Fold this sequence. Notes:
By secondary structure, the protein is α/β, with parallel strands linked by helices.
Amino acid sequence: MTEKPQIDFNGKIYFYCDPREGIPLGDKYQHLLICLAEGLQLLKIELFANVNYWQSSPTTSNYLFQHHPDITPDDCSIVVLMNSWYNGNLQLPENLFHPHRQYITVYLDAEDSDKTYIQRPEFRKFDFIFRTHFNGKLKYGENFYPWAFGLSDRIIQELQEVPEFETRKPQILVNFRHWKSGHPVRSMACSQLIPRVEQILAVNNSVDSIDDAPQTGYHHFHWLQTGGRHYPSYYKRLQESVACTCFGGFFVPNWTQNPSNLISRIIKQANTKLKLRTNRIVQWDSWRFWESLAAGCATFHVDFDKYGISLPVMPENWHHYIGIDLDNIPAAVDRIIAQPEILKTIADEGRLWALKHYAPLPTALRFLEIIFPNQNSLN
């Protein structure tokens, strides 16, 4: 990693958005960029980009990311990319790391795989890498920081008004978009937990399909922009339910420190085939986790502390979410049976916590505070 430039923040940030043409708009969905930029906009930070990207509605011609031909990265204090450059097999922008740059380089990494920094070692040059799916028990580079999918204005708008907990159906959503045999944390947790949860809650496992996609107007527009992730019917089910399962991820060896090396990846694949579990989980973050919290559902995931899951601001188990110990699943269900009021408390507190720490504004403030920790004027 190169030495970070010593600069003062000039209030301007440059974003390299996915520049590809001729592909569906949803294939270029860049959630982390959107959440961050929406918060920066509230702080009156000037935002510039290589291309125009992301409209808040189909009735406006304004973009969150605006291209200004006369503004280049060298006019800004921070330059940001997301992992779509890696996924799209794009070459990094020319001279991104030139020796005379007076800007900080940031990579927002929502990549599922841990192979990025072996296959594309130039990414190690970034001054900051904000990594979703971060696991505190694993060893990343010194330029890594835990990050999160978080909440965008679009999601918050859909869940702006949520019904009182007492008026909801006594049901738990178990309706992932993808039930992959290779997603062992999800498969293992649900197969062992749900038969027990059915003692106290009905299970709603309905899943939206392309046939349920909104056909016109605002919702259709965002369905296209998000690559089929915007379903009003899904948000309605969340609002009607008292709980939601948000499990996901892979078990990796307990002895490993580097999840990207070949041996670690081979053993991860073997663990998946043999249905073995460990106390380290990767690829755990999801839109569903944040949507469930924002919807005021009691949100089920694994115990973050036990399995090494790291966020910039950590939630408290049994206060903001229900973190399952996969070695003792009955204990969680027994606690809910003994304390039925705890579901409402967790649902209410989880929603408040998510909006307080992971809406766009706190996300933007955290981003700037990490990069410029001594510049108090940013607040």
